[in-house]
Amino acid sequence: MSVWTRITQALAALASGEALSAVFERLRTPPERTTAFTIAVIALAAKMAKADGLVTRDEVTAFREVFQIAPEDEKAAARVFNMAREDVAGFEEYAQRIRAMFADESDVLTDLIEGLFHIACADGAYHPKEDAFLARVAAIFGMDPRGFERLRARLVPGQEPDPYDVLGATPDMDLAEIRRRWRGLVRDNHPDRLMGRGVPEEALRLAEARLTAVNRAWERVQADRAAS
User: Fold this and answer.
1) What is the pLDDT along the chain (228 residues), one digit of tens a residue?
2) Residue 76, domain extent
């Protein structure tokens, strides 16, 4: 059963007039957690779209890139987006419900934030209101400000992240320790490991981009050390 079929079923189970945010109380075990992850990204993206007041064609394309939405599934995706956008509940309530659901899995919450960054930057402009929105969601998720800054530096076009930040290292570490951290990040972002964390298959492209950034950072550190 595809994630979109499960989403359709989850929406059908909502009582008349019940808010979309209620689904997070019912989707706590696999494979329902994958469904919840997908709904969460779309719902928070809908709230983020209200932050800058505009949904662009590029942002819609970004949805397609992350979730690989087939024509027959577009109706379900659009319904989730519209239900979230029209819900009187604010984005903070959504973020709090999602944090409660993935309380012991900060990596899943980080994956979700990365998906939102991808959508926010899809139109080539990162709006200050989008930044404020994402910073607040990250804080609700328990991400420290420095961690959010590292994500922003890596994911927002036009910013060059510090390679040591990307690797979770510092310039005073020896190369062997930095190599160990690089290998750990590569291992942690293996597709099989991500699927085990509850990341839906549709979002694995985000992990591919993360691995590219990690490997590029390691190459830069090696080159800097060789030149010094």
Assistant:
1) 677 788 888 888 887 778 887 787 777 666 677 777 778 878 888 888 777 666 666 666 766 666 667 778 778 878 888 888 777 778 888 888 888 877 777 777 888 888 888 878 877 778 888 899 999 999 999 999 988 988 888 888 777 778 888 888 889 999 999 999 999 988 887 777 766 655 556 556 667 777 888 898 999 999 988 887
2) 3-160
Structure tokens at 186: 């590569």
CB 11 within 8 A of CB 77: no
* Number of domains into which the chain is organized: 1
Q: Is residue 133 part of a domain?
A: yes
Does residue 218 sit within a domain? no
Q: Is residue 68 part of a domain?
A: yes
Entry field: residues in the chain: 228
Residue 105 lies in a domain: yes
Are the C-beta atoms of 36 and 80 separated by less than 8 Å? no
Tokens 């060789």 sit on residue: 226
State the pTM of this model. Answer: 0.72
